[in-house]
Amino acid sequence: MKILVLNCGSSSIKYKLFDMDSKEVIAQGGIEKIGLKGSFLKLTLPNGEKKVLEKDIPEHTVGVEFILNTLVSPEYGAIKSLDEINAVGHRMVHGGERFSKSVLLDKEVLEAFVACNDLAPLHNPANLKGVNAISAILPTIPQVGVFDTAFHQTMPDYAYLYAVPYELYEKYGVRRYGFHGTSHRYVSQRVCEYLGIKAEGLKLITCHIGNGGSIAAIKDGKCIDTTMGLTPLEGLMMGTRSGDIDAGAVTFIMDKEGLTTTGVSNLLNKKSGVLGISGVSSDMRELEAAVAEGNPKAILAENMYFYRIKKYIGAYAAALGGVDVILFTGGVGENQASCRAGVCEGLEFMGVKIDAEKNKVRGEEAIISTDDSKVKVVVIPTDEELLIASDTMAVVSK
What we know:
The protein is an alpha/beta fold. It is built from 14 helices and 14 strands. The chain has an eight-stranded mixed β-sheet with strand order 5-4-3-2-1-6-8-7, with helices on both faces. Strands 11-10-9-12-14-13 form a six-stranded mixed β-sheet, with helices on both faces. Helix 10 crosses helix 11 and helix 11 (296-320) packs across helix 13 (337-344). The longest helix has 25 residues, at 296-320. 42% of the residues are buried.
């Protein structure tokens, strides 16, 4: 069975085509700058070579059509006919409380998904464009939605509710939903396979650390708490997002700077975090270089970044009643040894001991704790697309 996975953003479409018999990626790439000048498709050839194909791509349907044509093209194609694609799986960002698992995208499901647009005004409409594009080009192919918020639907009410008037939850759904759920679910399952242990009885903290970052507390394979909230802004300090901030500080800044709600949202989502503190970059690789040069604001930003992660690990160890495994994933979590070391430093009281030599790993599955560490510290590269493809196959095979 061949499954096409699409991840549609407001001006981009990422794709991977899987042969699920071997779980092999047979084609992958992405379109950037949809609706802008200089739009292009960048694809990875089977030999690893990158190829850029420039084309005017005014909207998503044209972009999806370009991807499909490329998949069957004589020069870059991975399949001979679009009939070889059995189903399409979509990364869907916000499913609200309605979706706790992946589902076939029919009219009723899509209407419920659209009803969540207020909760993710940038992401959900873009996801829907990808679904509509496939419907227009391949109207008979089954499509499956895999929701970023679904994994976190097992949180208890005392963990997901905010201490604001309850009627705001009843009227508008104001609560913590959490994101990166597909990644947290994938790595929480994969780490059990890797370590040869069962999810039942396991107290696991998964740290998805990248330009966006979130942590989940997972007990018996189910999420009991996570750092992101109503939106992806809450929780950790991120590349350009502030993470946790006193709401009183937000209204104070709004008054002093004369900001509208749009202005303050832009400040907290796009101008804060690592970028806002360091003044260098939102990219942790560039921050690391600035730290090495002795840039004081870069050093401050890095200390803040590591501290927030450490603090949540401690909080979630308390929520879980202990911790057996701490897991790092995401672009930074998988590749930056200094981040993992900085976060785990000071957690020795919990039984965490990092092996400096083992911690030099980049982008590979590895145990980076010492043999006598009471808590196993593990790196597991995430593969959200494979999980989406697997879910899609399971849904359409029913």
